Amino acid sequence: MKKDIILSGVGGQGILSIATVIGHAALAEGLQLKQAEVHGMSQRGGDVQSHLRISSREIRSDLIPRGGADLIVSLEPMEALRYLPWLAAEGWVVTGTTPVVNIPNYPDEADLKRELQALPHVILLDAEALAREAGSPRSANMALLGATAPLLGIEAGQLEAGIRAIFARKGEAVVEANLAAFRAGYQTAQKQTER
Amino acid sequence: MPKRELLLGDEALALGALHAGLSGVFAYPGTPSTEITEYIQGHPLAAERGVHRTWSTNEKTAMEEALGMSFVGKRAMVCMKHVGLNVAADAFVNSAMTGAHGGLVVVVADDPSMHSSQNEQDSRFYGQFALIPVLEPASQQEAYDMARAAFDLSERYRIPVLMRLTTRMAHSRAVVEVAAPRDPNPLSYPEQPRQWVLMPGNSRLRYKALIDDYARLENEAVRSPFNRYTEGSDRRLGIIACGIARNYLMENYPEGCPYPVLEIAQYPLPKESVRRLAAECQELLIIEEGQPLVEQAVRGVLPVPLKIRGRLTGELPRTGELTPDSVRAALGLAPHRAHAASEIVVPRPPALCQGCGHRDMYTALTEVVREFPDGKVFSDIGCYTLGWLAPFHAIDTCVDMGASITMAIGAAHAGQHPAIAVIGDSTFTHSGMTGLLDAVNEGADITVVISDNLTTGMTGGQDSAGTGRLEQICAGIGVDPAHIRVVVPLPKNREEMKQILREEIAYKGVSVIIPRRECIQTAKRHAAAKNK
Ligand SMILES: Cc1ncc(C[n+]2csc(CCOP(=O)(O)OP(=O)(O)O)c2C)c(N)n1
Ligand code: SF4
């Protein structure tokens, strides 16, 4: 088993929590893992990205080669497209559709959508809305993780255990809210992948 | 079963040092090195053992404090980013002359590709220059293991050891198997007390001994388990791979590399191993993360009998960090099939946080500077450097920590008016205070803005050395208290701020304006901590 994942978004959106949950689950499954993070300058509202590599064999490079990513998981549509050169020919893009417009020359939303939909394998979801409906507006990242879950090759139950572990110190209510967002995302993705 | 932990490279190194019997970490924050010290600050073993772990004022004070701890026999570590070693260079280079007593490890994190730095200088040159051995891990496990190896090497040769990290190593996570912690050293004093007094007579003797030691350290590097030599069946090419370049090489040969490979992770350069590889192969490819230190050494200036490829010949890019792809191209392998880049994606540069006090300071400052035909703003390093970007376009220079005040002084002496310096509170205590003393002594006509957010914001909000005492410090240095002005940078105070700026620019002499409001990010954290 080997999954190379690029996580992306805008500083402050919480992509690192997604990586932490996947990491937790991967370790519980006895897999190897490497995760290159961005710290520092890039966090103040700029683009952020993390390379997450999971494998049953030894992983050497902290960076994923171009054309090597099985998945791009993004909380923001333009940020998903930024990393296309890293996506494998048959790779999947899972992205939230709500744009973060904090620059004057942000591209036209319809153009973004068109490019995303032209990709061979894509799951688009309104992660913010799903999180809100699940009663946890701040859990868009967990809704996105849920949408990614069917493609990860890791049991959903193992990921849920990861969510429990990571949010445990914030109390049971926070854990349940994040699990609800996760499950909402999961169902959305299942519907889209069945088609 | 051994204990396993998921750690950043920085954290793995920190834990390795703690477990090696560390008594003190001395550091000034700087990306990508900050998490080393923060990990030790948060670790229960450090608290239990009373390991020294508070931030120093700058890298030079940190280096000297660590040297003092080493003098009395205990293990000390210094951490900084690459440009920090420029600040600590006097102490660093001379620490090779005094040598170490208790193990002394200097960790320097380089930032090729300049993700958050002014340049991409390669700290291995400093090791070579000072005659100090260098270790460079390529995995989180190696970072953990090498920390102890570095302390042991330091104590065996009574010499400081430089550990070099690069951004990807520092900021990437993997599972690490940890060993049992060892006890710190007891207090003891150097066996060679003379060499700690660097008067010429002592230094000349010591320098000869140091040169001899460096030759012995080279033999250590030839035999080091970190410098692996792997035979290969295809000898048309031999590969030297340094630091994390080793990972990118193996990424491209998952089933094993067909060519002989010399991995280099410990310096001085193991020349004998290089000669062995060269004798076996028809060509050499030298892959190193950073500047072409090894490549230059191997190539020299006289003609060599075999072809050497690397960053200097263009097979690998001359600048920037390596990637699995740039290494792949240098190996002559076809690129992977990939999607084309999107043409509608645009850059998304970082910006000052919404509500940040630096914003209000810059809004007032730019409006006042525009009232003059040729106002120049000499700025410095920190979040406030983002004031160069839209919408502020507020600053004209950013060079190295502290250079705002001193460059303003030089420009003022040449007739520049207004000559304005903008500096952060942490940068001011790091390297601005001495410049301010120059300004006072020289009667320079400058206006200094210390934009005080009560923290070291850029690197994630560490304590700032002068918090609560900036006015006293400035007055103590000799700035006239009538020209030390404090204001709260909020939109409602914009006119007040502008008025103060105008008055102090008009004043012929040194004035200091301190707009003071806490960083939004640390304020949020403090509020959250209180609500718990
Ligand atoms: C010699 C050196 N050490 C460390 C750094 C890393 N660094 C850049 S800005 C900064 C802190 C700036 O703090 P402050 O001046 O208070 O400004 P703020 O970011 O809080 O606005 C640090 C530590 C550096 N660039 N150079
Ligand atoms: S981190 Fe703090 S100092 Fe830096 S931009 Fe944000 S609010 Fe301002």
Molecular structure report:
The complex is a heterodimer of chains A (195) and B (532). Chain A has helices at residues 15-28, 77-82, 109-117, 127-133, 140-152, 156-167, 172-194; strands spanning 2-10, 32-36, 47-55, 69-74, 87-96, 122-125. Chain A is of the alpha/beta class and 195 residues long. Chain A has a single domain, classed as 3-Layer(aba) Sandwich (Pyruvate-ferredoxin Oxidoreductase, domain 3). Chain A has a six-stranded mixed beta sheet with strand order 2-3-1-4-5-6. The radius of gyration of chain A is 16 Å and the shape is globular. The mean pLDDT of chain A is 93. Chain B is α/β, with parallel strands linked by helices. Chain B has three domains: 3-223, 3-Layer(aba) Sandwich (Rossmann fold), CATH 3.40.50; 229-330, Rossmann fold, CATH 3.40.50.920; 357-524, Rossmann fold, CATH 3.40.50. Chain B is built from 20 helices and 18 strands. Chain B has helices spanning 9-19, 34-42, 44-49, 59-71, 82-87, 89-98, 124-130, 140-157, 167-170, 200-223, 245-251, 271-280, 293-299, 324-330, 357-369, 403-413, 425-442, 470-477, 494-506, 520-531; strands spanning 3-8, 22-27, 75-81, 104-110, 134-135, 161-166, 172-178, 229-230, 237-242, 261-264, 266-267, 283-288, 307-309, 376-378, 419-424, 447-451, 484-487, 511-515. Chain B has a six-stranded mixed beta sheet with strand order 2-3-4-6-5-11, sandwiched between helices. In chain B, α17 (425-442) packs parallel to α18 (470-477). Chain B is globular, with a radius of gyration of 25 Å. The mean pLDDT of chain B is 97. The interface between A and B is large, with 52 and 50 residues. β2 of chain A pairs antiparallel with β7 (172-178) of chain B. The structure holds thiamine diphosphate and iron/sulfur cluster.
